[in-house]
Amino acid sequence: MHSTPAKAAVDDPLAPAGRRSGRQRAGTALGFALALAALVAAVVASLAIGARSIPPTEVIEALLGRGSQNVVGIIGELRVSRTLMGVTCGAALGVAGALMQAVTRNPIADPGILGVNAGAALGVVLGASVTGGLGLASTVWFALVGAGVASAIILLLSASRMAAASPVRLTLAGVALAAVLSGFSQALVVLDESVLESYRFWQVGSLTARPVDQVTGVIPLIIAGAAISLLLLRGLDALALGDDSATSLGVKPGRVRIWSLVAVALLAGTATALAGPIGFIGLIVPHLARGIVGPGLRRIVPLSIVLAPALLLFSDVLGRVIGGGAEIPAGVVTAFIGAPLLIALLVSRRRVVVA
């Protein structure tokens, strides 16, 4: 929720308002600088570390088209693609998670936990069954529809009496929805063996699933989702005060929620079509951003765009390092990182502010 001047004065009664706002801006700037540094480090690590570690100088030469052909092939054909995948999908999932936490007023909302990724995955499987393959061009639109339907169900549940009073109830409902949708996906895969092998690898969430040309082809969808999200930030901050207060400030709650649904579908649906259903990025990153820059989506969402790719890329690199020669997909690593945080949030008694 927003901090009022009275609240700020209670927190630090001797500090002038100008000094408080100045310190807040300085803290926000420092947070963004550290997040950008982490993202740059993650990109460098993603390009340099793998089955064969490559010094940063050779990475730079390979990006410029110089050096040995072997290194140029590893960097240009393999690692640039998965790094671009990590940046694209990470940003999409981080923003989608922040939006879901805000619009449902649920601190443990996440596209993976609440079934949005499972809806997109079901759309991908349906698209693969119809078109005969898991090619991105033929499945991404099915994924967007699946993510949109799942988002609409969660939005309706969040407004119901059953779930509105308890974040845990909404989470349980989302987990049940994800289980049902995943069950339908598994049934379709079993009935259509032509997509079984590709689906088995894709479903765990991996950054190696798509070539770079497919990634760049859907980036406009993610940019559109991010742009809608940024335009909604003022309205979502107002919704944190309650629908009546938001209306008095000139915000139309219904319109904000509908456009939030569109943005989440674009972001989570496209990311899932690209890399598979990667969970917990949308849960972890908004809480990290909130801890760095405080409440207020106008700071949390832009910071999530930077933090989420860094976390996903570091997870991917960690999977390469600890696999002992066999890479562990990024989706598995994020599950190991995110599951303990989810448990901690569920058992925590302290109130978590989501906007």
TrEMBL record:
It is a multi-pass membrane protein. It comes from the Bacteria. Gene3D superfamilies: ABC transporter involved in vitamin B12 uptake, BtuC. The keyword Magnesium does not apply. Coiled coil: none annotated. The chain crosses the membrane at residues 29-49, 83-100, 112-134, 140-158, 170-191, 258-288, 328-347. It is found in: Cell membrane. InterPro entries: ABC_BtuC-like, ABC_transptr_permease_BtuC. Keywords: Cell membrane, Membrane, Transmembrane, Transmembrane helix, Transport. The keyword Membrane applies. Residues 1-21 are annotated as: Disordered. This is FecCD family ABC transporter permease. It comes from Dietzia aurantiaca.
